[in-house]
């Protein structure tokens, strides 16, 4: 049995794990990373990147289809477009491959040792990895668990046959004629919209009374309108009950039974932490619900064992995992770091996109703040008009006593790119006056951000 002794061992090379290992390597820490499948984890291989590639291809296809149907007011007409989904997927796989090699290259550049195989704890300082060439034992002073998450499976809709998870949806070779999506959250709506644009007849079955229940109704409204325009049928308050052949049985909000025939049934009802298969029983770490419990330094209940990323809970986002990974590497190097982030921005890549950073008006009120809110619609923004996408708005929430910005939200085409300005304003402790006094380039959608601040101060210029 081969044995490696190192200072830091990272289990899982998703965005949390690989960033932790790269930063540790940069800091001169003797680091090993173990990955069972492919470097880049869920995000790079079967999540963020492939889904955004598919969403982009679908947008392009829909744009051209729209023009072909002579609906473009821009004076452009084209012949009926054709789609070769297998080619689209091959293009997406090419991007994934490039990024995958990039991550491996960065790990090597940081002198991180990469071990391919599944790691299993023997005790708090030792893991065993089943590799192609036999069992590898790794002993480390500090271990970081970054094993991520996996899709939740409904017991009456097990994955297989027509029932697929996001992983299979991102590698289909043909566009399903009829697609039923169970779960109208992030993945269901991002992918459901993409397939509708590619030509599927899509039905979304959502258990709660609103799609994207994590967002307030005002933010979701433009998305719901676009889903309707795309011909997507949305059933809220509806429960999936079971499967009969290729037909999904549901109970509608009114309590009626309905049968939805489908070529594919995409189940996107959330993700769960990957707590099995790596020896959690040997360690008996404290949990916070289904997740591993961590403190403000990502320490678990066992000395020398940290955890980062999706395994540690919501929000299960790649950039949170990366920020935790970077922090833990610095802590292992002896730096004084704690989780002191004021916000974790979130983007939902629907059409239009939704961005949130910090507190919504309701969340701020629930925390006892007296607030002022400024909202600016894209229908009054010149850039939005020139891009034929005037739906949506930017909204700022600030303390009424000091004008300190507590939260910023937006919904609109392309607003994902405003997320960094929103997060920066909150991290820097900006007040409404700071945003209002910053010159925003014209004509851009970002002017809506400045105008929302001016509106909250009572003197918007363009409405
Ligand atoms: P993961 O990325 O899940 O990586 C964990 C890694 O650990 C995996 O590679 C796994 O193979 C490995 N592993 C597990 N067990 C072992 C073991 N015992 N031994 C060795 N290796 C092991 N987030 C965003 O921020 N933006 C988005 O746009 C976005 N889009 C998404 C779209 C989809 C379809 C999905 C499914 C997710 C999306 N996410 C998005 C979420 C994002 O992918 C996750 O938050 C992120 O990948 C979590 O990173 P992680 O490092 O914690 O875990
Ligand atoms: P989600 O939590 O966003 O949505 C799940 C939806 O399914 C919810 O609306 C829920 O009410 C509904 N639901 C649950 N059980 C149901 C049932 N039996 N029948 C019908 N509906 C049901 O989860 P997801 O879409 O699977 O995504 C998982 C996670 O991945 C997200 O929470 C997010 O952290 C991450 N993600 C992020 C992005 C992004 O950042 N753009 C994109 C995709 C995924």
State the oligomer.
Answer: single chain
% residues in beta strands: 25-35%
Assigned CATH superfamily of the largest domain: FAD/NAD(P)-binding domain
Q: What characteristic shape results from the CA principal axes?
A: globular
List the uncertain runs.
Answer: none
Radius of gyration: 24 Å
Describe the biggest sheet? 7 strands, mixed
Helix count equals 14
CATH class of the largest domain: Alpha Beta
Structural domain tally = 3
- For the residues shown, what is the average pLDDT? 97
Structural class: alpha/beta
Termini distance? 72 Å
Which kinds of small molecule does this entry bind, naming each only once?
Answer: flavin-adenine dinucleotide, nicotinamide-adenine-dinucleotide
* CATH topological fold name of the largest domain: FAD/NAD(P)-binding domain
Question: What is the second-level CATH architecture of the largest domain?
Answer: 3-Layer(bba) Sandwich
